[in-house]
Amino acid sequence: MALTACGSSSSSSSTDKASGGAGGAVTLKLVAADYGTAGTANSSQSYWQGIADAFHKANPTITVDVQTIDWNDWTTKTTTMLQNKQYPDIMEGDAPQSFAADGLLYPLSDVMSASTIGNLIPSFAKQENGTDGVAYGAPFTTSTRALFYNKKIFTEAGIASPPQTWADIQTDAAKIKALGKGYIGYGLPLGSEEPQGESYMWMLGNGGGYVDGSGNYTLNSAANVGTFTFLKGLIAAGATEPSPATTNRQQMWDAFSSGQVGMVGGSGALLPDIQKNAKLTASDYATVAMPGKSGPLTTPLGVHDDITAFKANNHAAQIKKFLDFAYSDQYQQQFSKEYDLLPATTSASKALAAADPVQAAFINNIATSVGYPTNANWNTVLAKLKTTLGTTVTGNPSSVLGSLQSFAKSATS
């Protein structure tokens, strides 16, 4: 999947700024991550273009130029864009802290009404603050994680109940492997797509994480070293796919959806894959809390992708009108339905929970979920984690995590 664009080139920002001052017509540049497949009906280009068209109809002097970027290309393309000072007005994808530290963003209160801000899910909204305590972004789409397990494979392997602990995963995976049918016991994707999520679920299960309560990086903590040492042993025992370090999340989700994997960590976004492959019925799989070292996680991983507004083009008033429009329940629910993710607003979440009992289980986990760090240099650290975390299970966990800790402490935003 490749970059999909619609409308004018990114160099049009200065012209739009001038025309806004002269005749009142303004073009906003919106850059968003693509959660679907470029060039198909489920591309996020179609989603955002639909909002842009409806907004323009209601606000004829404001045009929204939409560009979506595949997640696999996101970091490279957006980094280049910002380094070249080709600032969009609105970006959907990254957390705000590093951009705020560089003085690039509007405070959220400048570009979103108080009523819209007040409708954001509090546990995610509080993670949008910069070092000055001011919110510079808003969650747009969210998810929480759980363990999916294949009930048919479990029955075939003589496993009576889903795992609660790491030891249970190890034992169950061994029983699944012993069936000799090429099944994967536990799908462990540590490739560059999203190793930070898979890793974090396991680190949380051992009392570890990326930072401590004060926001100081703790990548090489004893708990984290112990976590990856366990995972390395799990791989060595043949309980996972052959090469987790180079296996991406989508590969394992596809394999689970095809009935080849006994257990895998996932969110509601796995559900469309299951439906598309049509190999598993609703009664063939179930979800439980992610197992921890000594019991199920009570603080699951909660993830949100954010909206930020750049101030280079002086379009605060127009951005505010658009964001209030885009955060309506209609569009929040549309996005959730299209990609089986969760809304970022309280009202849309309540509506979804009432209509969909499967998603309701994930929504109920939001209140106790744990998010990624909000450090100003997190985006820089995250890019390094994506290319490095897999080597914790191919090399020496302590050494790899020690190098990552040094990088995180010295990295700039």
Automatic annotation (TrEMBL):
Origin superkingdom: Bacteria
Entries under InterPro entries matching the protein: Bact_solute-bd_prot1, SBP, SBP_1_CS
Pfam families (alphabetical): SBP_bac_1
Protein's UniProt keywords contain 4Fe-4S: no
Compositional bias (Low complexity): 1-19
SUPFAM superfamilies linked: Periplasmic binding protein-like II
Residue span of region Disordered: 1-21
Keywords: Signal, Transport
Family, per entry: Belongs to the bacterial solute-binding protein 1 family.
Protein name stated in the entry: Extracellular solute-binding protein
The organism of origin for this protein: Streptacidiphilus cavernicola
